[in-house]
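Dear V.,

Thank you for sending over the compound details. I've combined the ligand you provided, S-adenosylmethionine, with the protein sequence from our construct and run the structure prediction for the complex. I'm sharing the raw inputs here so there's no ambiguity about protonation or stereochemistry in the SMILES, which I know was a concern on your side last time.
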Amino acid sequence: MIFHVLTIFPEFFDGPFEHGVIKRARDTGAIEIRIHNLRDWTSDRHKTVDDRPFGGGEGMLLKPEPLFQAVESISGRSGRTVLLSAQGRLFDQKAANEYSRLADLLLICGRYEGVDERVAEHLADDELSIGNYVLSGGELAAAVVVDTVARLLPGVLGNESSAVFESFQDGGHAGAMLDCPQYTRPAEFRGWKVPEVLLSGNHEEIRRWRRRAALEKTARLRPDLMAPSPNRD
Ligand SMILES: C[S@@+](CC[C@H](N)C(=O)[O-])C[C@H]1O[C@@H](n2cnc3c(N)ncnc32)[C@H](O)[C@@H]1O
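Below is the predicted structure of the protein with S-adenosylmethionine bound, written out as structure tokens.
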């Protein structure tokens, strides 16, 4: 899968994609990440990407022309174009699963007070938020989306089944359950013991304990996930 990221701060991504799972996936060719500098699609001497909002108000907005030109000239694409935005639909594991089936994904990072609305209306397929809070720019959000989608792709985690049983993935169904509690050595630490069943070697008992513990933890920390919701599959 190819991830395209359109940003005015390409150097921002020197860090997030240079470590661990994502770096290995890039090195093996399981994913490709192409960072594009929005200023490459400006036509004036100052490489201007922003302008004042019509009607007045604080701050600047990213102008439509460089964004349209950039998205329309990144060739050979067949996937989705996503505008990162605090006003977008909430990104979750279900959306990550959908995106993981695409050949490519282009992520547009907003800055300043945001982006001319015509980009959301006529250029992006989706407007996506990573949470109900406001970031200074879409770059952090883009890094979150790339990381979350990439770990669902074949060959990225090495052990391909391990993403399937993580929180929210629920056996591959992008479900509503948290992962179960996990423990490693030592079996006793400061008087706190690992649940006996995990040391028993009885795989069926362990499987049942994990299921029950995951349900209990979900009910305790995220009861909202368990409540019936009209929006849930
Ligand atoms: C300071 S924000 C603009 C906020 C906008 N004026 C508003 O109130 O909705 C600048 C950029 O950060 C990104 N951004 C901010 N919060 C985000 C979020 N929760 N999810 C995704 N992107 C976000 C968007 O790309 C946005 O254009």
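A first observation: The pocket of S-adenosylmethionine is lined by residues 84-87, 109-111, 113-115, 129-131, 133-138, 141 (CB under 6 Å).

Warm regards,
I. M.
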